[in-house]
Amino acid sequence: MMKFFQVKKWFAILTLVFTALFAAGTAMAETSPYILMQQASDKLFSDIQTNQNQIKKNPNYLRTIVRNDLLPYVQVNYAGSLVLGSHFKSTTPEQREKFFKAFGDFIEQAYAQILTAYSNQQIQIEPEKALGDKNLVNIRVNIIQVNGAAPIKLDFKWRKNSKTGEWQAYDMVAEGVSMVVTKQQEWSGILRQHGIDALTAQVQKSAAQPVTLSK
């Protein structure tokens, strides 16, 4: 079993990949999630490379890249509702809206910070499979290690919006550990003891942290 600090280290690496794969520039509702993943990888890293000078001057510019390239293609509200879990029903629509906004800002900040460690990782996406009438799909991705170690195997969860037909990402699983479930467990104590308003305030505080370049 992975120790807690090892899990945190894994997610620091894997969140970078999660950001890369779900940052599609343009997408049609019927586009396959496999295609979106490939487009995502190309688009995000191209933007980072093109704007290296600006990023060095102002690391927070990475937040702009994440906001433009990533957030429109992540189901922030759906992921946020999963994080709230059983506490979701006890919240008001206004409280949920504030939490989802804070959660989206948190994702933006967290992924922008992780992207400062980008070092040309190679990503292999599994061959496209027939989707049929599926609304949920897991896509396996291998992260090729530069040191010759065995590839890191990840599973990304995509969900098709029943109203718009759009495919969007909402979770990532590594070594059996779900990012959504991890946040749900991490924040459940605050929800249980202090409620969603207190959690929203904490998430807002985390989201407001400036992006700093990795040393």
From TrEMBL:
This is Phospholipid-binding protein MlaC. Gene3D superfamilies: Tgt2/MlaC (3.10.450.710). Keywords: Signal. Pfam families: MlaC. InterPro entries: MlaC/ttg2D, Tgt2/MlaC_sf. Residues 1-29 form the signal peptide.
